[in-house]
Amino acid sequence: MSGTVADPTGITKPPIDDLLEKTHSKYQLVIYGAKRARQINAYYSQLGEGLLEYVGPLVETTPQEKSLSIALREIDQDLLITEALPDVEDTPKGPSGVPAVETDII
């Protein structure tokens, strides 16, 4: 038993090995999960303002569940789609000559 919950979720469930099969590398998994967790946080913070700019959690959640745990469960259940970024050489340059790269979770 870990903590006060008999079957913990979040970082330990789904297992990291299962999540790594859904991405190309562990670094992509970290960025993927962090971006989605920020979107979930933004969704909850905008609820009081009446704005619905972000999509809320796509899985059932509990009141005390962290946004990163929610994001990892969404990734594990294949509810999110990622798009590969173009190579830096193929990327159009911005006004300062720096590649203008954007990435979004759809």
From TrEMBL:
The keyword tRNA processing does not apply. Pfam families: RNA_pol_Rpb6. GO terms for biological process: DNA-templated transcription. It comes from the Bacteria. GO terms for molecular function: DNA binding; DNA-directed RNA polymerase activity. It catalyses: RNA(n) + a ribonucleoside 5'-triphosphate = RNA(n+1) + diphosphate. Keywords: DNA-directed RNA polymerase, Nucleotidyltransferase, Transcription, Transferase. Residues 86-106 are annotated as: Disordered. GO terms for cellular component: DNA-directed RNA polymerase complex. Gene3D superfamilies: 3.90.940.10. Its EC number is 2.7.7.6. Promotes RNA polymerase assembly. Latches the N- and C-terminal regions of the beta' subunit thereby facilitating its interaction with the beta and alpha subunits. Belongs to the RNA polymerase subunit omega family. The RNAP catalytic core consists of 2 alpha, 1 beta, 1 beta' and 1 omega subunit. When a sigma factor is associated with the core the holoenzyme is formed, which can initiate transcription. HAMAP family: RNApol_bact_RpoZ (MF_00366). This is DNA-directed RNA polymerase subunit omega. It comes from Stackebrandtia nassauensis (strain DSM 44728 / CIP 108903 / NRRL B-16338 / NBRC 102104 / LLR-40K-21). The lineage of its organism: Bacteria, Bacillati, Actinomycetota, Actinomycetes, Glycomycetales.
